[in-house]
Design brief:
Blueprint lengths: L14 E6 L3 H17 L7 E6 L5 H10 L5 E9 L5 H20 L3 E8 L2 H6 L8 H21 L1
Parallel strand pairs: 1-2, 1-3, 3-4
Helix pairs in contact: 1-5, 2-3
Length: 156
C-alpha cells in the first residue's frame, strides 16, 4: 500500500499571501503569524509576497490574478469577517470561501484558507494569536504541507 502525506518542508517554494485589509487590527496578526511560520520552516522572505485587497470579498479575484501568473507554489488567503446584525456576513463569508476554492481548482494551486469567519471581535482576537492560536500560522502550515504533498503526487 502506498501512502502519500505532505510535510512542512518546502524550501524551494514561493508563497503569496493575499490579504484583506478590512479588520486590520486582527488581520495583521494573521499576516505576522503566516510569515513567521514560513520563515521558521525554511522559506526565504524574498520568496514571500504580500498582496493586499480591500476586504475578504475581493480575495478570490486577487487570488485568481496571482494564480494566473504561475509564479507561486501556494496562495495563503488571510482576512477576517466578523458577524454583524445583517445578512452581510453570510454573503461575504460564503462567496469568499467559494471563490477561493474555485481558484484552487481552476489553477491547480493550493489556496490555504486563513480567513476568519467569526461571531464576535473577541473570537477574532482569540484566533489571531491568543487563546485559539494563530490561524494565519495554521494556514501557512497547510500551504507548506500541500506544496509538499502535490510535489509527491506529481513525482509518482
Amino acid at each position: 500500500m502506498q501512502t502519500f502525506e505532505g510535510t512542512f518542508v518546502a524550501p524551494q517554494g514561493k508563497f503569496a499571501l493575499v490579504v484583506g485589509r478590512f479588520n486590520s487590527f486582527v488581520v495583521e496578526s494573521l499576516v505576522s503569524g503566516a510569515i513567521d511560520t514560513l520563515v521558521r520552516h525554511g522559506i526565504k522572505e524574498s520568496d514571500i509576497a504580500v498582496i493586499r485587497a480591500p476586504g475578504a470579498f475581493e480575495l478570490p479575484l486577487v487570488a485568481q490574478r496571482v494564480a494566473r501568473r504561475e509564479e507561486f507554489d501556494a496562495i495563503i488567503a488571510l482576512g477576517a469577517v466578523i458577524r454583524g446584525g445583517t445578512p452581510h456576513f453570510e454573503y461575504v463569508a460564503g462567496e469568499c470561501t467559494k471563490g477561493l476554492a474555485q481558484v484552487s481548482m481552476q489553477y491547480d494551486v493550493p489556496v490555504a484558507f486563513g480567513v476568519l469567519t467569526v461571531d464576535s471581535i473577541e473570537q477574532a482576537i482569540e484566533r489571531s494569536g491568543t487563546k485559539a492560536g494563530n490561524k494565519g500560522a495554521e494556514a501557512a502550515l497547510s500551504a507548506l504541507e500541500m506544496v509538499s504533498l502535490l510535489a509527491q503526487l506529481e513525482a509518482k
